[in-house]
Description:
two-stranded antiparallel sheet; 6-stranded antiparallel beta sheet; globular; 158 residues; alpha+beta
Amino acid sequence: MIPMRQLVLGDRYTLVELLGDGGMAEVYLARDNSLGREVALKVLREQYTDDEEFVERFRREAMSAAALNHPGIVQVYDRGRSEDGTFYIVMEYVPGGTLKERIKDEGNLGPREAAEIASQVADALAVAHDRGVVHRDVKPQNVLLTASGEAKVSDFGI
């Protein structure tokens, strides 16, 4: 696990563990101390916090995703900037991992399961497209699976 810069962001979200990272951000499992629930906390990497273009793209990602309400899209709950200047987006925590992890751990999907997941992703993307939001990075890492195996599209991208 990568060491965390601080334990609590925004006087509300306690970081628990790193779930994943990409070029522009890291995603942590966190505890929302106000509502008493687990959330996924996407944190813009420190090297981009002074870059107005990246900060604006991060803000737009939160706003675009928050406007989408569909069971197949990861919900955005909040966004903010902590006292130390860290930008973050608070999202629904989906405990089943990514489609990429599922394939890596268990092998190829059967035709029926693959078709079901593809259909769920297509339905979610159709809702996004109807609202003028284009994902631009659909891949197995950005498809999360619920505990019951339902697909949820995440990471509408910086």
